[in-house]
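[worker-b] picked up task from shared queue
[worker-b] task type: protein-ligand structure
[worker-b] ligand name resolved to NAP; SMILES cross-checked against name lookup, match
[worker-b] sequence length check passed
[worker-b] input payload:
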Amino acid sequence: MTYLITGANRGIGLALTKEALKRGNKVIAATRKPKEENLIKLKNSGADLVIMELDVSDYDSIIRFSSELKYDVDILINNAGVLYRDRFPELVYENFISSFKVNTLGALFLTQELYKNKKLRQGGKIINIDSILGSISNASGTTSYSYSVSKAALNMVTKLLSSFFLREQIIVFSVHPGWVKTDMGGKEAPIEPEDSAKGIIDLSEKVSETGKFYDFTGRELEW
Ligand SMILES: NC(=O)c1ccc[n+]([C@@H]2O[C@H](COP(=O)([O-])OP(=O)(O)OC[C@H]3O[C@@H](n4cnc5c(N)ncnc54)[C@H](OP(=O)(O)O)[C@@H]3O)[C@@H](O)[C@H]2O)c1
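[worker-b] inference finished, payload out:
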C-alpha cells in the first residue's frame, strides 16, 4: 500500500510514517521541511520512503505537489495541524485564518487536487486527523477557539467527502489521535506518539464504514 502523510516530519505524523513503513508500506512523507534530519535518517536506513515538500496552507504548494506526485495513493492521512491557544473574548483574528488554512482547507484542497490529478486509488481511504476538541456534541469549553472551530469544520469536510467518494469506494473518516506527547500535545500528555500511530494505522487497515469519527482505539465518537 502507498500512504501519503502530511506533517510527516515530527510528532504524530513522523510516528505514523514509521509505523506504516514498519508494516511494509511505501510512504510519501509530505513536509514543509524536506531536509529535516528525522526523515533523511529514515530514508538513509533503506525505508521505502519518498520525501516531498508541501505547505498545506499554501494553495500553490498543494497544486505543485499534486501534479509532481508520481505515485497513486491508497491511504491519504491529512495530519498536518496547528493550534493557537485562544479563548473568547481575547480571540486573535489571524489565528483563525491560519488554523483554517492548515487544519481545514489544507486537507480539503489537497484531497481535491489529488483527486483531479487522478492520484487517489479506488478502494482507498482518506483519514482526517481531527480532535475531540472539534466535536460539537462534546463541546463545553476549549483551550482554543480557533482550533476547535477549524477542526469542527474538518469534520464537516469528512462528512461531505464521504458522500462524494462513495462512487469511488474511497472510505473517508476522522480520527482523534488522543492526547499525545508532541510539541502540540505537551509533555504532560498521557499517550506516546507511537501508541497513537499504531492505533491509527490499525484503523487505516480495518475501517470499512465511511463517514465516521473515531478515536485512535477505534471507539466511535459523536460529531
Ligand atoms: N498532540 C495531541 O494531543 C493532538 C490531539 C488531538 C489532535 N491532534 C492532531 O494531530 C495532528 C498532529 O499533531 P501533533 O501533535 O503531531 O502536532 P505537532 O507535533 O505540532 O506537529 C504538527 C505537524 O504539522 C505540520 N504542519 C503545520 N503547519 C503545516 C503546514 N502549513 N504545512 C505542512 N505541514 C504543517 C508541522 O510541520 P512543521 O515542522 O513544518 O511545523 C508538523 O509536522 C494535528 O492535526 C493535530 O491537530 C493532536
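[worker-b] attaching auto-annotations
[worker-b] The CA atoms of residues 139 and 188 lie 22 Å apart.
[worker-b] releasing lock
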